[in-house]
Amino acid sequence: MSSRRAFLVSLAGLCGLGVAGALGSLRYCARRSTATAARLDRLDVALERIHAPRTIGRAYRAGMDEPSLLAQLAEKPGLASAMEIDCPATRSVAIAEQIRSDFRDGDVRIEGRWVVSRSECIIAALRSA
Amino acid sequence: MIRDGRNGTFPEALDYDLVIVGAGPAGITMALELEATGLRIALLESGGEEYDDATQDLYDGRITGLDRTDLLTSRLRFLGGTSNHWGGHCLPLDPIDFERGPLNGMSGWPFPRTALEDAYRRAHTYCDLGDFDYDPATSVGTGPDDFLLTDSEAVDTAVVQQSAPTRFGPKYAAALRRSETIDLWLWTNVIDIEITADGEARSVDTRTLTGMPRRFAARQLVLACGGIETTRLMMVNNRRNGQSFGDAGGLLGRCFMDHVEGGAAFLWLDRPTPQKAYWRDDIAGPDGVTRSFVWRISEDVLRRDGLANAQFYLIPFADPAARAREREANRGWRGLKDMAKWVLGRSEYDFSFSDSYCQAVTHADAVALDALGLIDRSETATRLLLRYEAEQQPERGSYVGLTDDLDALGMPRSHLHWSPGAADRDSIIAAARLIGIEAGAADLGRLELEDHFDQPYWDANTAWHHLGSTRMAASPTSGVVDPDCRVHGTQNLFIASGSVMPSIGRANPTLTIVALSIRLADHLKALNAT
Predict the structure, then answer these.
(1) Do A103 and B270 touch (CB under 8 A)?
(2) B271, B437, B447, B452: best to mutate for the A interface, most A CBs within 10 A
(3) Which of B427, B445, B449, B441 is nearest to B152 (CA)?
(4) What does the sequence similarity comment in the record state about its family (chain B) (predicted)?
(5) What does the pLDDT look like over B435-450, one tens digit per residue?
(6) A114 touching B, CB under 8 A?
(7) In chain B, domain spans
């Protein structure tokens, strides 16, 4: 075997190991459900009413992973159902009602100096990822 | 009658039924309330009828702690006292201020607000106010649409009445001059109070800045020379004479309070909001007295959350983009007008054709939009600054003391250590948060807290309200004066001042000071009747 061929075989082997390693490491990465991820942007309308969504999102997200945020999202029935609504206007009403409900129930946070509802925090945190 | 204390032809020793020290709102009110009783009253004023530098200098002193306050210019030392630069905001303390004590467990008011209700109504007359009516709904020319958060559980709209403002000196000088029972002594500074060991106040020694001494003896003495000066006089007197009247609990001078004020938050409105009652200055009650409107936290929620009282003024900020377009249009119009005047030969100042032409051409688009009515010039707001005026809790660490420096009369100058605490700050933040919650629930907007709350004293300012340093309490170990404003341990020495307030609520204090003076006058009438 020529040294050229030996080099190419070694290179191919190394590439194969690299691909296998990369795929293996992906097993340990948190994965977002494709369906949920695709629908998260349906909640973006909530961010239009807060003036610093990134600041709020980052502040709320501190120390929290995405599964935890998604679990909190699931606990907000208005948000969960809004993601299933195709009509933007109807969806917007459902989200607004959930946010109002948070304020009425006192489920409110001060994040980045803003007084915001928990629902707004969750959405901002997920969308600032 | 008005007398000049510098005049040596008057006797050096005089007898009266009552001596009142200080001719500001409290002292003048008390003298006029008692005029009809026939009591012979000496009303002693340090200054004259006008401002005087040398007299004013007697007020200078040292500030420590939160030093955004002042001793020399916050007060005025001539006839009418500090009412000579008073802003005129009037409202009574809220019932809750009397019902509960301070949040830190110190004693509070020893009587309910109902005990002051009649005096408040009479105080309205002295302060040139109309009806004792603080219901926003009775305001003329307003409806529910003029207010915000009307259905809120936590946030109420409250009324502040606007006095002219009354300058007590000019306003009541004529009445004092023609009085046959009140002698107003000008240029007369109290330097000592004679109090016997068993607490009988017999006389005050005075001196003018020209060196004229005079002694005023009386059956009753009232100190009404302002919150800090009254305290200073008591402290100097106790120190000089080795006495401790009013100081059994070590509280003389302690628990100084001011209303802390500053920006709490911005409320970013969901939609541009047209003029509301809160930022209009043309609303009056049925009596014609101008009113302004503030937000306050409801009494139920103050109790529920253990918050200090506070009020919030709403200051509108317009949409910056709209205002910028408006300014551009104004510049364009000005350029056109200046050129037109130049053509007509009516230029009013150094006209520059190139400048005016440039302004007109540069802003031609804005002028065109404005001409078509497409620039919004209405007074709409896109955000509101919430400016708080908050109750400070009484703490011993906030105090009035004495310095080693002496004034022109040989009296130690005042030392004010004003020190609002973290609890005061936290209460303001909690109140702002409640407003943020109500605004969110009502789809009004979102609240952004100011960024200075983690700074020392959180960038707070003074309201120039000098209160609490001779606090009222039933027990001599909990306060300096008793519920009748008599100095504990004395028989006949009284204080008429905001310094007797054991807690200060959210209200600007002048109306309460005048009401307390009326209440004390009633008490003295009753004493003298018996």
Answers:
(1) no
(2) B437
(3) B441
(4) Belongs to the GMC oxidoreductase family.
(5) 999 999 999 999 999 9
(6) yes
(7) 2-100+163-258+466-529, 129-162+260-317+381-390+421-459, 320-371
